[in-house]
Write a structure and sequence with these properties.
Elements (H helix, E strand, L loop, with lengths): L5 H12 L4 E2 L2 H6 L9 H4 L9 E3 L4 H14 L3 E4 L16 E4 L6 E5 L2 E5 L4 H10 L2 E3 L10 H6 L18 E7 L8 E4 H5 L10 E11 L3 E8 L2 H12 L7 E5 L1 H4 L13 E8 L3 H10 L3 E7 L3 H6 L5 H9 L4 E7 L2 H4 L1 H6 L5 E5 L6 E7 L3 H13 L3 E3 L10 H11 L24
Parallel strand pairs: 2-4, 3-4
Antiparallel strand pairs: 1-2, 5-6, 6-10, 7-10, 8-9, 8-10, 11-13, 11-14, 12-13, 12-16, 15-17, 15-18, 16-17
Helix pairs in contact: 1-4
Length: 440
Amino acid sequence: MTDTDYTALEAALVDLLGPRGVSSDLRQRERASVDGARMSPIIAELLPLGVADLVAFPTTAAEIAAVVAVAARFGAPITPRGKGTGNYGQAIPMAGGLVIDTSRARTVLGVDGDTITADAGAPMTALEQAARAAGKQLWMYPSTVHTTIGGFLAGGSGGTGTIAHGSNDMGFVVALDVATPVSDGALVHVEGDEAQRYVHNYGTAGIIARATVRVEDLQDWRGLYASFDDFRGALSVLRALGDLHPAPRLVSADTPHIAAQLPPDDAVPPGRSSLRMIADVRTVEEATALIEGAGGRIEDVREGPTVSAAISVLSYNHPIEWLQKSEPGVYFHVEVSGDALIDRIDEVHAVYPGGLLHIEAGHTVPIGMLAGVYESPEAVYAGIAALNELGVGVHNPHQWNVDFRLPQTVELARETDPRGLLNPGKLNPEYAGPTKGAIR
C-alpha cells in the first residue's frame, strides 16, 4: 500500500458526504475501531489492534460504493463496519486507514414475494418489522437483534432462529450488491452462489452495500419459558422440542449457574436450569407436555411481536457475555456443536476447568457455547483438540482471520481487491489455526 494523504482524503469525503459524513475526531475513530473482541481474553490481551485514521458514514448503498471508490483512489486501507457487536477482531482496522460505518445506510426497500431487500445498515429488527407488515417473517433472526444486515452476513454469525432452515449459508441470501476497489464506484449485483462468495469474509473481497434475503409466511409465535431442577432435565427434551413441527424459531437452555447471571426475570428462577423457546402457537401444548413429562415446569408463556427479540437476545453467545460481565476476567468460550453436547455432557464440561455449556437446538445437531475458566491460549487450543476427540465440532472465535472458504475468498480478492486494501490483516492464506469442525 502507498502512503495515504488523509487530509486530502478527508476533504474528498466531505465533498461526497458532507461535513457530518466523515470524521477525524479521535473519539469517533476509537469508537469505530473496537468490536466484540473483549469477549475473547486471548484477543483482549493484544488490544489495541489498530485505530482508524478516518471514519465515513454513508447513508445509502450508492454512497457506500462511492466511498470505497474514493478511498481506493487514495490507496487507503478500507475496513467495513456494521454495529461491531458480533465480531472478535474482524471489524478492527488493523492497518488504520478508513473505517466505513455502514449503520446509517438503513433503508429497507421492501418485501417482494418471498424476499426482502435492504441497505447494509438496516437493523434486523427493521427488516423483521417490514416483513411482518407484509404478512411475512425473516428466515432467521439473530441473537443481536439490532445488528445490521450487512454486518450479520459479512461477519461470522450463523444466526439463531434457523432450526428449520440451517445457517445463512443454506439459502438465506438471495442477492447482494457489493462495492469493491475495482468497481469504480458502481455496485456489483451478484446472486445465488456468486453472492454467497461474499458471506462470512469480513469485507475482505467486497463490501456488502445492499442485501436481498429470504422471508416466509408469518407465524404466530409464543415465548415459552421453562425450568428444570438441573441441566440434565433441560438437555433431555432439547432435541424433541427442536423436532416439533412447525419447527420452533429457537430452543435455548442454560445451566443454573449461567441462568443466574441473566437479567432478572420471574420466568428465569434462581437455582434452576432455564429453558427458553420461541414456539409456534400450534406446538405450545405439545411442548408443555414434553417439558412437564421430563420433570420441568412452565414458568410463563408470552405473546406479542416482541417475543422473538426478548428470547433471541438470551441466546447464542449472549448468556456467556452475561457470565463474563458477572465474573469479569474469569471465563472464555468456544463455539461447539454435536450430539455429544447432550450425550456426553459430563465429559464436555470436564474439558475446561469450570466448564459450563449454553446449548441450543440446531438445524441438524445441537449447537452451543462452552465456557471455561481462562488459563492460557495453549489450554484453550488443547481443549479444542480434546473436544474434537469427544466428537464435538468446534469453531475457534479467538482469532480474526477469515476461516470460512478461505482459499476461495483469497482467489476472489485477487480479482476484486488486487492491492489488498479491504480489511487488511484478515485474509491470510497461510492461516491454519485450531478451528476444526466449524459449526456453521
